[in-house]
Structure formats: structure tokens, C-alpha cells
Write a structure and sequence with these properties.
Helix content of chain B: 25-40%
Strand order of the largest sheet of chain A: 14-13-25-24-23-15-16
CATH class of the largest domain in chain B: Alpha Beta
Number of strands of chain B: 14
CATH superfamily of the largest domain in chain B: NADH-ubiquinone oxidoreductase 51kDa subunit
CATH class of the largest domain in chain A: Alpha Beta
CATH topology of the largest domain in chain B: Rossmann fold
Largest interface: A-B, 39 and 36 residues
Strand order of the largest sheet of chain B: 5-2-1-6
Radius of gyration of chain A: 29 Å
CATH topology of the largest domain in chain A: Rossmann fold
Strand content of chain B: 5-15%
Structural class of chain B: alpha/beta
Number of strands of chain A: 35
Oligomer: heterodimer
């Protein structure tokens, strides 16, 4: 079980197998004996769960007493324990024999063969055939209803690990033990089978099962994997460490890495099961060049790369650096992002490099940087276990960051108070102590009012404010008119709710604020982030365990892409491109004068293309034509370019507009590092060879540079592959907060949380320790955050507010997840418009009916899903399904500081589709083919 | 020396002091009129700690089966922290052969309520939960009536004579079980009370530290609490005049057998029922004096001292003294609930054991592997042996499985498997011949009709 050692616990001395051992009081015998390299068999024990003490195979002998189960019995002072003895072997053999007597001994037919805990135990105790001469009486039917979790009760040994994993790790409470005694069995839901139970398919039950009562069908086809590669998940920003099991060059399955520091041996449905996209038949497998008629022809790598090199050189010559812009990818590694920005700055001579954090968490990075001195979250995931109040604003972690969401859920179940600010009735909102169902676009008002209450009711920490902050007097004056009544009017909530929320937040000894894209993708997002930082700082909730202000980053490496400088205004480490010292460092390393132009941000790039100043773009692994707001505007911009290069793994909406498409590789095929949401730099390791015809993205960028006559200094000479560790060394050299990072150290330590200032620095779990911020004067800046109306408000014509987000089973535009087994799940098959029953009645639609959703920018057709998960007046859609084109509806209002678009707020109207208007068939171009 | 006056049966007519046919519900007025709640009044006049000292001085041992000293249990609670602390009363009387608490609940529940109130005062417990066996439908109704009367008369509730405990009114609730033997195990009971599956908890933490809802909790049996009122009323010394007492030469640190005890007699006797007697009464005396002798004048063959989990007394142990020392002296597990089940010379021990083990296999909760699988296999093998299909090896296997399951060998969390363990081992040890006969393929005619199959 994962618990922090109590520093005050007394140290006890005792003996294990005659050897004197010391451990703090409260340590279990099992932990103690493992600490000296001893082992006892266990069937029901898991590091990730509370001790259970039911299989009894972990018995140890205690001198002068009866044997005890080591997994849950704390060590006693001066006791003497024996881990192996004839008595223990007899008892263990007896237990094993009892289990085996009711277990099919068909090991050859079993996927657990060779890695089965029962099999190993039987060998250890020397059990052959059980002596009980009766036919097995248990042979219940299999539960095959789930596409990738199969339950075969005949093999169950009743250890309860699956049910406990469901409760204690995932927190879904789907699996349970039913029946008594000999008839105990595992049930899903109310014994309805997996299909009907509300399972989130995280697969933890399968991972924990010591036999093969729960199994993934994938493993049945392959046998035991030949290698296991530890890498980092490429979906959300949690950064789960994964064990990729590979056989004959194909991925057999993916399991959580029990040593993973971010996920502690847990994964979600996507990381665990959605990996088949890497082997999909749809993968781009050769460069494609656009034909004059608009179609594509296959081309050789040489031809494509030469064409790009020539074209880029031409454009640079003809239009200067302003004619070129690049979009880097938060899906790619740090090394590739670094290379991409180096390419833009060194080869093309422009600062016009940006990445998709522009359209998600750029306000978080900006505000955190301004107020606290560094553009990342302050604390770590593990801190949720130490918070006594957690406030979550505009985030749905149980679906969008499931592993972290599960961790929050566990904290709440253990008594941590939870405040939710969200227009949707999310899973965590249902568990919360206080849910403010504010109207989209009113975040800043409500947060200001909460600050007002903190100040008015003197719930602040004056000492901390005096010692560690600046700007309080001004802020206090500005907050004066921001009464809860004022905010309640804007947010359409009860003012008392705001008061209670502020009081609850201030009541915490360690209170933490978490937020997601509901804050930042909502116009004036930076102000909302400033407001939350103010709250934390005013109450002294910064720089301690369990406190802080933490954005939950949406993508695997969106933190890293920004950290390494794939942004127009900064180099790596958020050092401004105008900072003379940073420029000098880069001049020295790069050997050229870094560009000094004001680079373009992503929305500016599209505007520039429309204006005709931007002529060529190089887009790495981002589907801007589908994921960016105001699709029509984006597509128009890309069409007006002279030359567009898109590097992708699948054909997508953006790639269709390209002049050259280059087939890149997935995270399973390359080496590198990702930075997760809590600043954790972790290795990505190559598990399978790049698919034939594809090339590693970093190599492609480097080769283009080479062909343009520039040596980026990251390979061993022309025509050789890049060396990611060499790139990391250069990056560390140019990035003070990463100075201590190297592949060698990452191999040894598993992960490093930046800041890490030198080779002996252990990394930083909590930034701003003791309230000393990383700003030059070490003070936190309290920032005034005036409320402004969102870019769009509902009116008579467009009476509803549409907000968008993710669902559990898909990831962003669905390019990857829709080509995996996960899309076989019923819940993951199609887009719906979530609408509150009262609104549905107003519009006159029932569940499952087709509706037109229309905004000022366009109209899409989608099925209505009538649900109380949204509030009246607010509608919800995901953006996972290309055919529903949700982003067509979204406006192009942006945050005033960072240009982050307002995805979360669009005024729309909803109309029922009449039979006559229903299209006969869908546009075949929009249909995504599923991997077989 | 026999008991001079009835204590627990003071208001419940029981031989030799009364006729069971005269038994009726003792309501609040009748209870108070006969000296009820006097103990509570005395206790309330004392400091809580002093009340615990009285119970400690009386050397009262728990009447639920394990015989743990009650005063010591009450003093295990951590210091008050102003938050909630609970009393749970174990009225989940489901041990086969045991029906003593039922009599108290049926006729004189106020006697237990008085003990509850005293315990709450002494240990500073704000809420009491009486966990009553699901099958006790009539008793639940009677108990609720008594609780309502107690509330009406300010024993519990707002403005009660207990006053505020941990900043709240003292409350007493009845909670009905749903028919599982395992919920009589104290931590299984707590789980069930919390609304969960009644699976026993691993210890530590013990209930005194983290019991119901994670808070310090005292768990006592109905009969234990019922005797607390009279002890407080008449003093620890009076209590210690009853029972077998402490044998000479035994140091006072060793718990002894003081006080009266309810004995339930069932099986092959003429007048089964619940009787009150001194601890230490001989099994033979109980059968002859209270049970009206062996049914049909048959010879004594065996007896279960107190619920089937205790194992059996052999034919030569007819005169065994029924006190807390019985386990050590007569090779059984202990006195248990003192629900004595008597078997005559015609009893088919194979059948009897099969019936007992069938019970454990049915009631094993299924949490710990040895008990879940072990009771299942024991049951299957005994059915086989009874049908004449067993082998000598089966007898060895029986003994081997039984011997390695239970909290005593350390292979289970709770004591349910120990019950099965002792039942099997004492039966095999004391009646080996009966079992051997059945596996030798000789013709055998069983005269007994024992339980369900």
C-alpha cells in the first residue's frame, strides 16, 4: 500500500530469519521482510491497495506465538519472525491445495501460463495433484460481454484483488464479491455482466488478477511477449508510465508500469487498450505530393524532402523569414519540439513557431509565469492525498485525465473536501461537497467574488501576504465591488453558494486549486488563472505539500513543447527572445544570431495567411483544420498558402490541404522524453520499429535542414539518425531549470521533475517551497482581474450556451482512439448533444432524435442525448468525431493576453431535424475507417 | 452450591423459581417497580472511570463466547477527543444451540438497556446500536417497544438522564441483521452495521481504536450488558459471591469464573430451555436437575458445551464443570455461549458432524481462502463418508484440513473456521471409532435423524 512513512513513528528492532532489522512502528512484516530482500508468497496482496489478509499464504512464524499474516500485521518490538519453516510450508501447501482443488488445472490452455501466481505458488510448495477426490463443482459461464475484459469465473481464486482495484484504485465500484463461502464469486454491476455495468474499462482488474480469471483477449493470440519496454503514455497530460509488451515486432498489450511515478501502476482505458492505431492499415506509409488536380500521388522520400528543401529555400529567399511559420506538436517528444523550434529559428530565421498549448493552457503558463515566476503547476499529483480541500474549476478529470481523476476520487472518498466550479454535473461534481454550477463565461466573476469573501471575512493569511506577496492593497480595493451577489447575477447561481465555497476553501489546512480547459479556453482565461493564484496566495496555500495552483494539462507533452521553446515569444525555459542573456547563450550554442522578429502565434498565422504575408507552413502532427476554432477561417487560411507541409501519422483534415504529406511515427516507434502535467520529465522508449515507409519525426526535420544546407548538430553526420540524448544535452545546456537533466540520470532515476538546476539536483516536487516564488524578487504577484463579458452571450436567436470537452473513451479529434478497440465500446460510438431534460422539452426533442445545432458560424447535425449531466441552458458536445465537426460552431474570440480561443462558450440554437431534411447518407469523405 | 436467587431471570419466571408459562413482557413501569434502573441511577452518580472500576472489580467476563474481561475491554478506549464513540450490542445470536439472549430480549429487554446506558456513561459513548439477528422478528418488535419506553422515560434521547455525551444526546438504535452468521463476529457486525458486506476486518486496528465508522467502539453481548445493572446496583463483591470463583493458588491476575450465567439446554433431554445457574455447574447436574434427565432414559454420549463452535465433550466428560476453564481441562475450545447440546447413546456422530460442518460451509463468508475452500471440502467429504463412500484417507484429510484452518493456526482473519476446526477435531479425537466404522464398508444402520442435508 502506498502511504507516506510517519516521521514521528518510533523505530522498532526485531528479527527476521535471525537477522536484526529496524523499521518504524506501523510497518507491516511483509514490507519489513521485503526490505531485506526476503520474500513470502502472496496471492491477495497488492502494493496499490490496502492489505486484505485473506489468502493467508504470506504467513510468517512468530516465536512464541501463532503464525500471523505478514501483509497486514505490524511489526512488534523484539519479535522474531521466520519466513520459511516446515510448519509454514505445510500451511501454505494446504492452502494452495484447497485453491487448486477448485481451479481448472488446464495450464496449457491458459493465458496466465508462465506468469500465474497460483502456478508459481504450487511449484514453491511442491503441490502436485490435489487430493480431494470430487469433481469440481464450480463451472459458471464466462462473461464475454465486454470487448476487451473477459471474466472467467471458473478460474477465480477469490482473492478479491479485482474488486478492490475497482474500489481502491479506480474508484468505480463496478466489481464486487457476491455469494458466501464456497460460492463467492466476482460480479460486475448488480450481477448484470460487464456490458450493462457502468464500467470505465480501465483494465485495472485484469492487471491485478493473479491468475487469468480476468483476461484481455489480445494476449490469447500471442503467447508470452518477448520484450517489455517501459515508456510514457501519449494520451493526456498525466504521463502514465507503461509497460509495452512486444512480440515479433507487434504490440501484444500494454500494462501499467507498477513503478510509474505519475500513475502508481494504474492506467485508463486509453493508455491500456487504445494502442492498435500504431498497427492500423490507415497509417500513412509513404510521402504524398499533391497533384495539380488536387489529388495526391505517392512519392519517394528523396523526392519529397528535396521538394520541401527547395521550396522552403525559395520562400525564404523570396519573402524573407516572415513568409514561413511552423506549428510544432505537443504530441511529439521534447527533443523533436526543440528541433522544430531550432529549425524555425536557425534554418528559417523566424520566431513564428507555436504549439497547440496556444489553444489550451497558454493562459495557465502565462499567468503562472507572471504571478509566480514559472509557467507550470506548483505541486505534484501525489499531493492530492495530502490536501484537505481541493477546488476544481472547469475540469472533468475523471474523464479527461482518468488516472489523476481516480486519485482525486480516492482522496475525496477518504474525507478530503471538494469544491467544483463547473457548468456540468460531472462525476466529481456529484461527489463534491459544494458544486457551483456557474454559467459558462462567468469564471472570473465567481472567482473574484470568492476572493472578495476571503478578504471581507478575513479568511486570509496576513503574515503570508506581508512576507511573500506584492500588490495586495490594490487588489483589495479592486475586489470591493465584487460581491457574491454581483457574481451570482452573472453566473446565475445562489450567492450563498459562493460564500460557502470561499469559506470551505479557506478552511483547509492544505487547500489546492486544480483547473482545466474550462478556465483557459473561455476567453479572459488568463484572468481566471490569476484569480485562482490570488486565492491560493492570499490564504498562504502555496509552497507546501497538498497546496498550490495546478493546471491539469491536456496532452502528453503540451508542457514539454512549451518548456523547450516551441513558442514565438520565448526560448526554452520561458526565457524571452528579447532577453540579452538568453540571446547570448543561444548565439554561442547555435552559432548564429537568433531571430528577433515578433513571431506569430497560431491564430495570427491564420490571419497572416489570409492577409497574404505568410506563404508557407510546416505543421507537425496537429490537425488544426479540425481542432482549431472557426474551422472555415482556418481552412481558408491553409488553402491560401503557397506551400504547406504536413507531417502526420494518418490522413486528416489538415493533411488533405497539404502540398506535401510526410508520414511520421507514433510514440511507440521512437526515443525521447515527455513532460507531464506536474513537470515530470520521463523517457519515451522505442517499443516497435517504425512502420515501413515511415520515418521518425525528429529525423525528418533534421533531414530537411540538412538538405537546406544547415547542420543542426544533432546527428553523427549527413544521412545518420538523430541522437535524442545529444539533443537533450544541448537543451539542458540552454535551459537553466533543466540543467541537471540527462538521459543517463533519467535512466537511473526514472523521472525528473524540473526545476533541476544541476547534475546533483534531485528535481523539484513542490515549487515555491515556503512561499518563496521563482520570480526575481521571490514575491508572489497579486494581480487584478477585472471581469469582462465572454465573446458571445446567448440571445433570442441563439438561446443556449454550448461548451465542449472530452469523453473518457476518446482522445481529442479521435485520430488515434477511433482506430482502436476502444471504439468498439457502445458508449464510444458516436457524438451526441448533451441537453438537459427541461431544455429538451422546450426544443421538443426526445433522447436519440437528430437535431441541428446552429451557431453564428455554422450548423451541424447530431443526435440529442437528454441528460441531467448538464445544467439547463448549457449544452455539451465533444470534439472527438470528425463527422460532427463540433469546432465549426466555435467562435474565434480569444484571450487578450495569450490568444487562447474561446472553445468553451458558443451561443447556439437547437432545432429538431424534420424527416425531409435528414440526409440520406453521410459524406463518405468524413467516414473514418476502423482498423480491422 | 446452587444459585440462591435469580439475577438475570429475576423478572422472567424460570425453574426452579417460577413457571416458564407465566413469562410475560416486563415493561418500563414493571421493570422500575422491581428495582430496575437502580444500577443506572447509582452509576450516574459516579464518575465514569469509577463505574469502569466497579465492572473491573467484579471480574465480569464477556458472555458472548470468548469470555474477555468486560471491564478491561471498557478501559481500552483511547482518551476522549470530543468526537463520536459508539457502543454496539451484539444481539446477532446465531450460534447453533444458543438461545439465551432471545429470552432476555423477549421478556426483559430493559435489563440490557440499563446495561447499555451504564456502559455509555462509563465509556463516554454517545450512540448505541443494537445489532439484532435478522430472524428475531418478534424480538425486534419487543426490543423496539422497550427502546421507545426508554426514550419516553428519558433514559435516552434529548434531555435524557445520561446528559450530553461527546456533545450530543445519547441515542440508542436497533439495527436488524439480514441473516448471516458471520455478522455475529464483532468486526463482521461492524461492517454490516456500516452497510457493507459483513466480512470480518483485519486487526489491528481493534474496534476499541477504530470500530464502527472508523471511531472507537465497544462491542458487548446482550447478556454481558444485562448483568451490568445488577452489578452496579448491588456491588462487585455481591457479584463475586456467585459462580465458581477463583481456585486456590491461582493468582488474581488470571481471569476467573464469577457470577451467574444463563445456560441453554437442548438436544436429547426431557425439559430443554434456558436456566440460570452459577458458573462452574457440572454438565451432569445441568442435565439432571434442569434438563429433566436424558430423554427416554438413554445414556449420555456427548455434549456440546456452548454452541457448536466449541467442539464436543466426550462420553467420559459427563461431569465436566461448565466454566471458563473448561477448554483447558476438557480439550474443547471453551465455554462459548453455554448453549449445551446434549446427545444420547444412539446419536450418529458422523451425521452430527456432517450437520455441523454443513452449517459452517453455508455460513463461511468466503473471504479467507482456507475457510472458504476448507469448509466446502469438509462438507463434501463428510457427506461422502456419511453415505458410506469415504475412505480412511478421507478421515486423515478431514483432520488435516480442519487442523490448519482458523485464527488459531493463523490462517484466517476471524474465528469462524476455528469453530469448524474444533468441531471436526474433537469429534474425530473423541469418537474415532464411530468414524472408522463408517469408512470400513461395514453395514451400518444410523438411528439418528440429524438436521438437514
Amino acid at each position: 500500500m502506498i502511504t507516506k512513512a510517519d516521521p514521528l513513528a518510533q523505530t522498532l528492532t526485531f528479527k527476521i530469519d535471525g537477522k536484526a532489522v529496524q523499521a518504524p512502528a506501523g510497518t507491516t512484516i511483509l514490507t519489513a521482510l521485503r526490505s531485506i530482500g526476503k520474500e513470502v508468497p502472496t496471492l491477495c496482496y497488492s502494493d496499490r491497495m490496502q492489505p486484505y489478509g485473506a489468502c493467508r499464504t504470506c504467513l510468517v512464524e512468530v516465536e512464541g506465538r501463532k503464525p500471523v499474516a505478514s501483509c497486514h500485521t505490524p511489526v512488534a518490538a523484539d519479535a522474531s519472525y521466520k519466513t520459511h519453516s516446515p510448519l509454514l510450508t505445510r500451511l501454505r501447501k494446504n492452502i494452495t491445495e484447497l485453491i487448486a482443488s477448485d481451479h481448472p488445472l488446464e495450464c496449457l490452455d491458459c493465458t496466465a501460463n508462465g506468469r500465474c501466481d497460483l502456478q508459481s505458488l504450487a511449484q514453491e510448495v511442491g503441490l502436485r495433484t490435489p487430493r480431494y477426490e470430487n469433481a469440481r463443482t464450480h463451472n459458471p459461464p464466462k462473461d464475454d460481454s465486454h470487448p476487451f475484459i473477459k471474466l472467467e469465473m471458473a478460474k477465480c481464486i477469490g482473492c478479491g484483488k479485482c474488486a478492490r482495484a475497482c474500489d481502491e484504485v479506480q474508484g468505480s465500484f463496478i466489481l464486487g464479491m457476491s455469494g458466501r463461502g464456497y460460492d463467492v464469486k466476482v460480479i460486475a454491476g448488480n450481477d448484470t455482466g460487464f456490458e450493462k455495468a457502468d464500467c470505465v474499462s480501465c483494465g485495472q482488474c485484469v492487471f491485478e488478477c493473479p491468475v487469468a480469471a480476468l483476461e484481455e483477449p489480445g494476449t490469447r493470440l500471442f503467447g508470452l511477449p518477448d520484450t517489455t519496454v517501459i515508456t510514457t503514455c501519449s494520451y493526456c497530460g498525466v504521463g502514465c508510465s507503461l509497460n509495452v509488451n512486444v512480440k515479433d515486432g507487434s504490440v501484444v498489450n500494454i500494462e501499467p508500469n507498477p513503478q510509474g511515478s505519475a500513475n502508481l501502476g494504474h492506467t485508463c482505458v486509453k493508455g491500456r487498450f487504445a494502442h492498435q492505431f500504431a498497427h492500423s492499415k490507415d497509417r500513412l506509409h509513404t510521402p504524398l505530393i499533391k497533384k495539380p488536380d488536387g489529388g495526391f500521388r505517392e512519392a519517394s522520400w528523396d523526392e519529397a524532402l528535396d521538394l520541401i528543401a527547395t521550396k522552403f529555400n525559395e520562400i525564404k529567399k523570396k519573402y524573407g523569414p516572415a513568409g514561413f511559420a511552423a506549428i510544432s506538436s505537443s504530441r511529439c517528444t521534447n527533443e523533436e519540439n526543440y528541433l522544430m523550434q531550432k529549425f524555425a529559428r536557425v534554418v528559417m530565421g523566424t520566431n513564428s513557431i507555436d504549439n497547440c498549448s496556444r489553444v489550451c493552457h497558454s493562459p495557465s503558463a502565462y499567468a503562472l509565469g507572471q504571478a509566480l515566476g514559472t509557467g507550470a503547476g506548483t505541486n505534484s499529483f501525489q499531493d492530492v492525498a495530502e490536501s484537505d480541500v481541493i477546488m476544481i474549476v472547469g475540469a472533468n478529470p475523471t474523464e479527461a485525465h482518468p488516472v489523476f481523476g481516480a486519485r482525486i476520487k480516492q482522496a475525496v472518498l477518504k474525507g478530503c473536501k471538494l469544491i467544483i466550479l463547473d457548468p456540468r454535473n460531472t462525476e466529481l461534481a456529484k461527489l463534491s461537497d459544494l458544486h457551483i454550477p456557474l454559467r459558462p463565461g462567468s469564471n472570473v466573476a465567481v472567482i473574484n467574488a470568492m476572493q472578495h469573501v476571503l478578504v471581507k471575512e478575513n479568511l486570509i493569511d496576513p503574515d503570508f501576504i506581508a512576507k511573500h506577496t506584492e500588490g495586495f492593497t490594490q487588489l483589495k480595493a479592486e475586489l470591493e465591488p465584487c460581491t457574491p451577489e454581483w457574481a451570482a447575477e452573472i453566473a446565475a447561481v445562489d450567492p450563498d453558494l459562493i460564500r460557502r465555497a470561499a469559506r470551505l476553501y479557506a478552511s483547509g489546512k492544505a487547500a489546492q486549486v486544480l483547473w482545466g480547459l474550462g478556465v483557459t479556453e473561455a476567453g479572459h482565461g488568463s484572468n481566471a488563472v490569476f484569480g485562482m493564484i490570488n486565492m491560493a496566495v492570499m490564504t498562504g496555500n502555496i509552497g507546501r505539500p497538498g497546496t498550490g495552483t495546478n493546471p491539469i494539462r491536456g496532452q502528453n507533452n503540451v508542457q514539454g513543447a512549451s518548456d523547450v521553446g516551441a513558442l514565438p515569444n520565448v526560448f526554452s525555459d520561458y526565457r524571452s527572445v528579447t532577453d540579452p542573456e538568453a540571446r547570448a547563450d543561444h548565439r554561442r550554442v547555435w552559432g548564429i544570431e537568433p531571430p528577433s522578429d515578433k513571431g506569430l502565434r497560431i491564430p495570427d498565422m491564420f490571419d497572416a495567411a489570409h492577409h497574404g504575408t505568410l506563404k508557407a507552413m510546416y505543421i507537425l502532427a496537429e490537425d488544426v483544420a479540425q481542432s482549431d476554432p472557426n474551422t472555415t477561417h482556418v481552412v481558408g487560411a491553409l488553402e491560401s498558402l503557397e506551400f504547406l507541409v504536413v507531417q502526420e501519422i494518418f490522413m486528416n483534415e489538415t493533411a488533405k490541404l497539404a502540398d506535401v504529406i510526410l508520414p511520421g511515427t507514433t510514440f511507440l516507434e521512437k526515443e525521447g522524453t515527455f513532460v507531464n502535467s506536474d513537470r515530470r520529465i520521463q523517457r519515451v522508449r522505442q517499443a516497435i520499429d517504425p512502420r515501413p515507409g515511415t520515418r521518425i519525426d525528429g529525423d525528418i526535420i533534421n533531414t530537411i535542414a540538412r538538405r537546406m544546407g544547415v547542420d543542426l548538430g544533432v546527428d553523427a553526420g549527413p544521412g545518420t539518425p538523430i541522437d535524442p540524448s545529444k539533443i537533450m544535452d544541448e537543451l539542458a545546456h540552454l535551459t537553466p531549470k533543466w540543467a541537471g537533466v540527462s538521459y543517463e540520470r533519467l535512466e537511473k532515476m526514472g523521472f525528473i521533475q524540473w526545476p533541476c538546476y544541476d547534475k546533483d539536483h534531485p528535481g523539484t516536487e513542490i515549487v515555491h517551497l515556503g512561499g518563496e516564488t521563482l520570480r526575481p524578487n521571490h514575491l508572489a504577484k497579486l494581480t487584478i482581474t477585472p471581469w469582462q463579458e465572454p465573446g458571445e452571450l446567448p440571445d433570442k436567436e441563439y438561446p443556449f450556451m454550448l461548451t465542449t470537452g472530452r469523453m473518457l473513451f476518446h482522445y481529442n479529434v479521435g485520430t488515434m482512439t477511433r482506430r482502436t478497440d476502444v471504439s468498439k465500446l457502445d458508449k464510444a460510438k458516436e457524438e451526441t448533444l448533451r441537453i438537459h431534460p427541461s431544455d429538451a422539452r422546450k426544443v421538443g426533442v426526445v433522447n436519440g432524435e437528430l437535431v441541428n445545432v446552429t451557431s453564428r458560424r455554422g450548423s451541424v447535425q447530431v443526435k440529442a442525448q437528454v441528460t441531467k449531466a448538464t445544467n439547463p441552458g448549457t449544452l455539451f458536445m465533444t470534439f472527438h468525431f470528425p463527422e460532427s465537426r463540433t469546432n465549426l460552431l466555435v467562435g474565434s474570440a480569444v484571450d487578450e493576453f495569450t490568444g487562447c480561443p474561446e472553445y468553451k462558450i458558443s451561443a447556439v440554437r437547437v432545432e429538431k431535424v424534420t424527416a425531409a431534411a435528414r440526409p440520406e447518407t453521410r459524406d463518405p469523405a468524413d467516414e473514418v475507417q476502423h482498423a480491422k | 452450591m446452587p444459585l440462591l436467587e435469580p439475577v438475570l431471570c429475576k423478572r422472567i419466571p424460570t425453574a426452579p423459581w417460577g413457571d416458564p408459562r407465566d413469562r410475560k413482557y416486563v415493561n418500563y413501569e414493571a421493570f422500575v417497580a422491581t428495582g430496575g434502573y437502580a444500577g443506572l441511577k447509582k452509576a450516574l452518580a459516579m464518575e465514569p472511570k469509577a463505574v469502569i472500576e466497579v465492572v473491573k472489580a467484579s471480574e465480569l467476563r464477556g458472555r458472548g463466547g470468548a469470555g474477555f474481561p468486560a471491564g478491561m475491554k471498557w478501559s481500552f478506549l483511547p482518551p476522549e477527543d470530543g468526537k463520536r464513540r459508539f457502543l454496539t450490542v451484539n444481539a446477532d445470536e446465531s450460534e447453533p444451540g444458543t438461545f439465551k439472549d432471545r429470552m432476555l430480549l423477549d421478556f426483559d429487554p430493559h435489563l440490557m438497556l440499563e446495561g447499555i446506558a451504564i456502559c455509555m456513561h462509563a465509556c463516554r459513548l454517545d450512540t448505541a446500536y443494537i445489532y439484532i439477528r435478522g430472524e428475531y422478528h418478534a424480538q425486534a418488535a419487543t426490543l423496539q417497544r422497550a427502546i421507545d419506553e426508554a426514550y419516553a422515560n428519558k433514559i435516552f434521547g434529548a434531555g435524557s438522564m445520561l446528559g450530553q455525551i461527546n456533545g450530543r444526546d445519547a441515542e440508542c438504535f436497533m439495527h436488524r441483521g439480514a441473516g448471516a452468521y458471520i455478522c455475529g463476529e464483532e468486526t463482521g457486525l461492524l461492517e454490516s452495521l456500516e452497510g457493507k458486506r459483513g466480512w470480518p476486518r483485519i486487526k489491528p486496528p481493534f474496534p476499541a481504536v477504530a470500530g464502527a465508522f472508523g471511531r472507537p467502539t465497544i462491542i458487548n453481548n446482550v447478556e454481558t450488558l444485562a448483568i451490568v445493572g445488577p452489578i452496579l446496583d448491588r456491588g462487585a463483591d455481591w457479584f463475586k459471591t456467585m459462580g465458581k470463583g477463583r481456585a486456590e493458588g491461582v493468582p488474581p491476575t488470571v481471569p476467573a469464573s464469577f457470577g451467574p450465567k444463563l445456560f441453554g439446554i437442548s438436544g436429547h433431554v426431557n425439559t430443554p430451555g434456558v436456566f440460570e445457574e452459577n458458573l462452574g455447574i457440572k454438565c451432569s447436574e445441568l442435565i439432571e436437575k434442569y434438563g429433566g434427565g436424558m430423554r427416554g432414559g438413554k445414556k449420555f454420549k456427548a455434549a456440546i458445551p456452548g454452541g457448536i463452535s466449541m467442539g464436543v465433550l466426550g462420553t467420559d466428560q459427563y461431569h465436566a464443570e461448565l466454566d471458563f476453564d473448561i477448554g483447558r481441562k476438557y480439550a474443547v475450545l471453551g465455554l462459548g455461549t453455554a448453549g449445551v447440546v446434549v446427545m444420547d447413546e444412539d446419536t450418529d456422530m458422523v451425521k452430527a458432524l456432517r450437520n455441523m460442518i454443513r452449517f459452517y460451509a453455508h455460513e463461511s463468508c468466503g473471504q479467507c481462502t482456507p475457510c472458504r475452500e476448507g469448509t466446502g471440502w469438509l462438507s463434501k467429504m463428510l457427506h461422502r463418508i456419511e453415505a458410506g463412500d469415504g475412505t480412511t484417507r478421507d478421515l486423515d484429510l478431514l483432520s488435516e484440513i480442519a487442523g490448519s484452518m482458523g485464527a488459531m493456526p493463523g490462517t484466517t482473519i476471524c474465528g469462524l473456521a476455528d469453530g469448524a476446526n474444533w468441531a471436526v477435531r474433537t469429534m474425530l479425537n473423541k469418537f474415532w471409532g464411530d468414524f472408522e466404522k463408517r469408512v470400513r464398508k461395514e453395514r451400518f444402520v444410523s438411528l439418528s435423524v440429524v438436521g438437514a442435508r
